[in-house]
């Protein structure tokens, strides 16, 4: 798990900001990108349990100190790697049914990626053993829940969705269903696809039936 192939070195020339947002020099986005790219390569190659911050730093061409300025440890770093782009909703189409299907497909694509499949079991285990880590990770999704609440309000005003639809449960249903669907399909479809587009349509129809007026 050493070497630096695939990732351009990114030396830490700035103080950065710690995981809790401590004051310091501006954080260098090039280092963030190099570290996340290195972590993605290594977690697929070696698995989550064997992944180390030392190996990530070496491949990224930086130092463990630079990593600790940004993340409290391996679990938070890997969480950012896997879920960073899921902390916001895809753009709205203006129609609840279309938005719902888009969210389901995005969740399936996330859980079907090699990085997520390699990282998720170990990440979940670490979160289960560390309530404070779990709290910090969950806090990263606050924006998604807030945005979904706003969309549900608009959908209620349009007469598409019931007023008592719960955004928290909706995200749990979508995320949990997508994760189980993908992780149970070890070999994928005959064409190698790790999730079924028809399944996404069926889940969207099922969820819509539960929330529509």
TrEMBL record:
* Record GO biological process: regulation of DNA-templated transcription
What name appears for this protein in its UniProt entry?
Bacterial regulatory proteins, tetR family
SUPFAM superfamilies per record: Homeodomain-like, Tetracyclin repressor-like, C-terminal domain
- Asked whether the keyword Lipid biosynthesis is assigned, the reply is no
Q: Which PROSITE patterns match?
A: HTH_TETR_2 (PS50977)
Ranges for the region named Disordered are 1-26
Signal peptide annotation: none
Provide the HTH tetR-type domain boundaries.
29-89
User: What keywords were assigned to this record?
Assistant: DNA-binding, Transcription, Transcription regulation
The feature table lists the DNA-binding region at: 52-71
Taxonomic path: Bacteria, Bacillati, Actinomycetota, Actinomycetes, Mycobacteriales
What are this entry's molecular-function GO terms?
A: DNA binding
Reply yes or no: does the keyword Flavoprotein apply: no
